[in-house]
TrEMBL record:
Naturally occurring in which organism (per UniProt): Lichenibacterium ramalinae
Pfam (any one): MipZ
Entry protein name: ATPase
InterPro entries: DNA_Partitioning_ATPase (IPR050678), MipZ (IPR015223), P-loop_NTPase (IPR027417)
Length: 306
């Protein structure tokens, strides 16, 4: 099956894929916070959960909806799609089904949303590769551990065995090649250090140095990262994030330092992504400027008439 010829035109929606072929690095956490951050900034966001087993992103938005309903409030929600994995014995058949479901999901959202955030599983699969080849921005969260670095480039005490491009990096480089052939598009690959410890250890410094070295070789950028904070995980059952008004929901009106710090980190992450500003986000700004203009004209005329 030629997936390239059937690939939907995604240029109208900016696709953010959160992926790394390593479990537990924070893919779903980053997908959740990026989505809520963009929604709070006024963008129209769609989400796709490709993790057909864990469905963390799907659960989070189910919890969010249910919390809002029982609290009698409204919360920003993305247009969400959870994909199912093909379960027939015929692999080719599964691919066709998965591709069709994915293309249908994209088709429904591509013209109405400015951003599509795709959360992915940790295993290499057809859907995961498909998502990579559509990515405009690829965020790979990584923890401060050589085990995490090893999926990008082989870590070894023997210099001769060190530095070979490892499986996941290879997958991204391949997706980049494919992407260039199809629409000359670029994948902006951003490595995000996640669960960074409050105190920088020697090990963390060594890891930061090896990531910087790899950045040139594999052509990715690095983001400042998110610290290990309870607030990034404790609100999952009620589908809230540090960006939400949890001070009203749970803390008697007080913003904690940890909430403020988490908000700042998410804001910085979104800034680092340098996402394109367009669509309602931009027209929203234009509408406000227009309103300012009309209001000041009104005041000028009123003052003159006095
Ligand atoms: N910055 C963070 N601070 C605290 N806990 C985190 C942070 N990022 C992720 N976690 C926790 O780490 C675990 C794995 O994160 P998750 O987002 O599910 O990873 P993945 O989707 O890559 O498997 C979860 O228990 C999550 O709540
Ligand atoms: Mg996950």
């Amino acid at each position: 099956m030629s997936t390239e010829s059937q690939k939907p035109d995604l240029r109208s929606a900016h696709v953010i894929v959160v992926a790394n072929e390593k479990g537990g690095t924070g893919k779903s956490t980053v997908s959740i916070h990026t989505t809520v951050g963009l929604l709070k900034a006024g963008y129209r966001v769609a989400t796709i959960d490709l993790d057909t087993r864990q469905r963390t992103l799907t659960r989070f938005f189910e919890n969010r909806l249910s919390w809002a309903e029982q609290a009698g409030t409204t919360l920003e929600m993305p247009f969400h799609h959870a994909l199912d994995r093909g379960d027939s014995a015929d692999l080719g058949d599964n691919e066709t089904r998965e591709f069709t479901a994915f293309a249908n999901a994209i088709e429904q959202i591509e013209h109405d949303y400015e951003f599509v955030v795709i959360d992915t599983p940790a295993s290499d699969s057809y859907l995961m590769r498909l998502a990579h080849s559509l990515a405009d921005t690829l965020i790979s969260p990584i923890n401060d551990s050589f085990i995490d670095v090893d999926v990008f480039s082989r870590v070894h005490h023997d210099r001769a065995k060190r530095g070979a491009i490892a499986h996941y990096a290879d997958l991204v480089l391949e997706a980049r090649r494919r992407r260039r052939q199809v629409d000359a598009g670029m994948i902006d690959w951003v490595l995000l250090r996640n669960r960074v410890a409050a105190l920088q250890s020697n090990n963390a410094k060594q890891i930061a140095a090896s990531i910087e070295k790899l950045a040139t070789e594999l052509q990715f950028r690095t983001a400042e990262g998110l610290h290990d904070r309870v607030i990034f995980r404790e609100l999952f059952p009620i589908g809230l994030t540090a960006l939400d008004a949890i001070e009203e929901a749970a803390r008697g009106g007080v913003l904690t330092n940890s909430q403020l710090a988490a908000r700042q980190e998410i804001g910085e992450l979104i800034e680092t992504l340098r996402l394109p500003v367009r669509g309602p986000g931009e027209s929203h700004i234009a509408a406000r400027h227009d309103w300012f203009e009309r209001m000041s004209r009104f005041y000028r005329e009123r003052d003159r008439a006095r």
